Each structure stands twice: as C-alpha cells, then as structure tokens.
C-alpha cells in the first residue's frame, strides 16, 4: 500500500468524532450504486482507516460486532458436538451393548456397516444442506435463516433422543446433517461481513474454536457416562444439544443483520443502522465512510460482472476463488487429524476404553488451547506462512507415527501406543494453531462479497464430500472386523498430505491485511498466489474518479 499522507492520517484520527452525518452516499448508492469523486474519497478514507487501526483500537470500537459474531458462531458448537458424538459412542460400552452385535474376541461392537451409515448421515446431509443454505441466506437474510435452523435443530434432537433403534437414529443423523451444513456456511459468512479488517481473521478463527469446544464438550460428557449401563448413557448426551438453540434464540432477536446483505437488498438506511449497532457511538459518523466503501465494493464487483448465481462461482477469477476456498477444507480433511475417530483410534492402538477416552479429552483440550491461541500465528506470520508451517509439522508427525508401527515389538510394547497418542496430541496442538482455524479464515476471505454465501455453500458441499470419503474409509480401516490398520493408517494420510503441501505452495494466497476491495483487485488481475503478500495496490485503480488519494 502507498504511504498515507499526513492529512489523511490526521483526518483518520478525527473520523470517529465527526458529528456531520452526510446522507449523500445513501442517495448516490440508491441511484444504481454510482458514487461521485467525493463519495469515492469517503470510500478510500474508510480503507485507510481500516489499515491504520490497531487490533486494540478495533476491539474498542467494534466490540459489539465481535460479540454478535461470537453468538452466531456458537451454532458451530452444537454442530461439532452432534457430528462427533456418535463416532465416540462406538467406544461407549452402553451404546454398543444396546445397539451393537457380538464380535468374537471383541465383545459387543457396532457393525461396521452401521458405523458407516450413522457416521455418513451428518456428512451426506451437510452436502445437501450447505448447497441449500445460500437460498434462504440470500433471500431472507442471515438472521432469519439462523432462527429457522435453530428451531429445526430442536425438533431433530427430539428424534435422536427417543430413537428406538439404529435405523431411526441413522435417519435422524441424515436429517440433522442438512441443518449442520447450513451452520457451516452461515457462521463464517456472518463473521466476515460484520467485522473490520483487523478483527476479521481472529473472530473467523473463533468459528474453529467453537468447533473444538463442541468436540471437547461431547468427549467430556461421553467420558462421564462411560460407566453407565442404561440407555441414558447415550440419550442424555444427545438431549444436552437442546441447550444451544435455547441460548442462541434468547439473544438472536437483538442481533443486527449483515450490512453487506442489506446493501445488496438496496436497504441502505438499514445498513447504516446495522453498522451503528455493530460499532461504538463515537464511530457512527465514520460509518458513512464505511457505507461508501461497502457500496463502492458492490458497485466495483458489478462492473467486473460478478453475478450472484451458483453458475457465476465457476466463471473467471471466481473459479480460482472457489478452488482455494474449497481446497483448504479438503487439505484439512486429508491431513490425518484424528479427532473424528480419536477415541476409537486410541482404543485400537491398544489403550483401554477409559484411557482412550482420557486421551480423547486431552486431545480436544489441547485443540481448544491451540485454536484459542491461533490469533498469534495468524497475526505474526499471516495466513499463508502459518498454514505452511502447520502443514509441514503435520506431515512430519504422521510419518513418525506410521513408522513406529514397523517396530519389531510394536504389538507387545504398549509404550508405542502411548508415544503415538502423545505425538498425535502435539500434532493436534499445531493443527489447531494453524490449519484448523485458517481454513475458515481463508475460505471466508477469498470469495467476492456478492458470491460469498454461494461460494461457501459450494465449499461446504465439497468439504462434505471429501469428509464423506474419510467417514466411509475410517471405520473400515480401523475396525477389528475389517482392515484393522490401527496407526498404520497414518501412512495413507502422510502420503496424501505431501500432495496437499504441493498445492498449498503454488496456489494458496496471502489474504491477510487486505480489504475485500483489494482482494477483488488481486484476483481480477490474476496476481500469482505467492505475490499476494507484497503486491502494492494504488487505490486509484479501484476508484477511477480519485485523481490523488492524498488529496483526501
């Protein structure tokens, strides 16, 4: 970016205290989204202000936006809880006793075909649900869509709690998956659309923290019921899912709608009100500049012929954006992260059920700490470098764990099982610091604002398909009645992760410290991924009516 002039910096310092509310931007935007040079000056001023803000200033001015995005992101907690809990129930004695079948030498086990059927449910449902989510999000808005999903979640939890057999439980998982797919799209979209540049990465990463919290909570709750023998050992954990819809719905009425969505509905007065509700009082005057920037971004994308249909996601630079947004989740799924079948994997390596659950709790606890601290590598290294560092460590851990299986006394020496579990926990820590949260951050930043909901819907669909492969393969590879691969499965994930590293090196761009307008410009001009970080953009390229941005 070019250095900001002293005049621009002085005006930025006084931006949030200016009481002269100017409605010219609203009038200009309502007239087909066209802005004159004065309005473009406001848009550039807003860009300069975003770049000039520190993290602490942004938190002070936009703490309301941070809190509302955190509330919406909490929907991911119940999504992670429900998707992961059935996988851990395979190691729960009461679940196996009531719904399983006897396997010689291993006691009661859930048949592998039923493991696949129940594990596939949320994923297959997510594929459909993610694709469908963009329709109500674009027509009804983010807020109303979330309210509808929360009510539907409550009804489907009832079906899970009172399922009399494996068939009904499996059907409930498929139906619930449709809603989980919607949450996967809605939470990061809302966070990216209400937060300023400095907070965007941190609080989109919070979406990943919510995922880890859901995993941590469900593992801890399942561990608490491991000694129960009645059906309530798994029915109570299912019933606890009612907590989240009740809590979120209690506050959702006061939640502001996304100003980006309101602008695309030509509801500019409402967009300004939403911006005011998302920021502190002293910033209300400055929000006219922010609104001008948002309107100009929408107009700029219209000029670039960025449409608003699913088909447009596969055209021109948007196809590259879709590739990146989808690939980061595919890389994540094939990274060998053991969380989905962690307890079951630990049990198959030789640990007892109780020790396997204890290690599972430790794994999720480490994940929670890692994602909570992920803001530091995101801030220090940026998106691309943090991703590459995390992926490199991930690959090293996978190969070390895999080669341990070749030790001559591997099957008789339980020390190897503990060592492998410990290495996987350190891998989970680094994964949670980097790859885990960054997939949400990057996928939310690369789409155009007009196609964000649809791009993330397609991303979640592709994510679901790739995760479906893992869900189907996992039980067959781990189950004693099938391949019984145990930790040797890491040979597969280690090999696939090498391909992930190659893609990331050549195709993954740095989107940190870039406004959505600048990201649009970089993709439209086909800047190579490795040059995103240092590429200098003159705002006059985006705002042609600005002869000299230092005249602001």
Automatic annotation (TrEMBL):
TM regions (residue ranges): 65-81, 114-134, 146-163, 169-191, 203-226, 238-255, 324-345, 357-379, 391-410, 422-443, 455-478, 484-506
GO CC annotations, alphabetized: membrane
Species per Swiss-Prot/TrEMBL record: Colletotrichum gloeosporioides (Anthracnose fungus)
NCBIfam families named in the record: SP
Domain of life: Eukaryota
UniProt KW Transport keyword: yes
Listed name of the protein: General alpha-glucoside permease
Membrane topology listed for this record: Multi-pass membrane protein
